[in-house]
Design goal:
Distance between the termini: 28 Å
Strand content: under 5%
Number of helices: 8
InterPro entries: PEX11 (IPR008733), PEX11C_met (IPR026510)
Number of strands: 0
Helix content: over 70%
GO cellular component, one term: peroxisomal membrane
Main location: membrane
Keywords: Membrane, Peroxisome, Transmembrane, Transmembrane helix
Largest sheet: none
Transmembrane segments: 96-119, 131-148
Radius of gyration: 19 Å
Shape: globular
Length: 214
C-alpha cells in the first residue's frame, strides 16, 4: 500500500512534469530525448531497428514543425539584445557578445530551416539538402559560441560556484561532438563516430537540457 509520503512525492513530480511539458522548451527537450533514445535503442535491436528509427524520424519531424512557431520569440530576443546594447547594459563584453551571437545565429538558423522545410514540401524550389547542410553549420557555430560563453561564465564565477554552468557546458559540448560528426567534410572526428556513439552524446545533451528545466 502506498504511504502518504510516497503519494505526496508522486503528486509533486507529476505537477513538475506537467509544468515542464506545458512549455515549448520542455516538450522539445522531451521529444528530443525520446528520439535519441530510440536511435540508441535501434543499435541494440537489429530485428526492429528499421521500425524504431522510423519512429525516431517522426519525432524529429515533430520537433521541426514545432520550431516553426518559435520565430517571433527569437526575433523578440534579438530586439531585446539590440536594446541592451544601445543602452550600454551589456555587463561582461565576452559573455554578452557570445550570447548575442548564439541568439542571432539561431534566429538565422530558424529562417534557413523554414526554407528547407518548405522546399522539402515542394512549396519552394530551393535545394533542401543544401539548406539543411547550412543549418548544420549554423548550429555548430551557435554551439561554439555557447561553449565559449559558458567557459567565460565559469571562469568569472569560479568552478566551485558554477555547478549548473558546468552542466550546461557538458550538454553543449556533447551536442558539438555529435554535431561535428555529421559534417560532410573529413575534419577532426567528422564521420568517425558510430551511430551508437553519436546518439549517446546527443541523448546526454538532451537529458541535461530536460533536467535543467525540471
Amino acid at each position: 500500500m502506498v504511504n502518504s509520503t510516497t503519494l505526496a512525492h508522486l503528486n509533486t513530480n507529476m505537477d513538475h512534469l506537467s509544468t515542464v511539458l506545458s512549455s515549448y522548451a520542455g516538450r522539445d527537450k522531451a521529444i528530443r530525448s525520446l528520439a535519441f533514445y530510440l536511435q540508441l535503442r535501434s543499435t541494440t535491436s537489429p530485428d526492429s531497428s528499421k521500425e524504431i528509427l522510423a519512429l525516431a524520424k517522426q519525432l524529429s519531424a515533430a520537433r521541426l514543425v514545432s520550431r516553426q512557431f518559435n520565430h517571433v520569440s527569437m526575433l523578440k530576443s534579438c530586439r531585446q539584445i539590440l536594446q541592451a546594447f544601445n543602452s550600454g547594459r551589456i555587463g561582461d563584453p565576452m559573455e554578452f557578445f557570445t550570447g548575442a551571437a548564439v541568439t542571432g545565429i539561431y534566429t538565422v538558423y530558424g529562417i534557413v530551416e523554414l526554407l528547407a522545410w518548405l522546399s522539402d514540401a515542394k512549396l519552394l524550389s530551393f535545394d533542401s539538402a543544401r539548406l539543411y547542410k547550412w543549418c548544420l553549420y549554423l548550429w555548430l557555430s551557435a554551439l561554439i559560441n555557447g561553449i565559449i560563453r559558458q567557459l567565460r561564465i565559469i571562469y568569472r564565477k569560479r568552478i566551485e560556484k558554477s555547478q549548473e554552468d558546468i552542466l550546461t557546458l557538458v550538454g553543449l559540448s556533447s551536442d558539438f561532438i555529435s554535431g561535428l560528426n555529421s559534417l560532410p567534410h573529413k575534419i577532426l572526428w567528422a564521420g568517425k563516430l558510430s551511430m551508437r556513439q553519436s546518439a549517446t552524446f546527443s541523448l546526454l545533451a538532451s537529458i541535461i537540457g530536460f533536467y535543467k528545466l525540471w
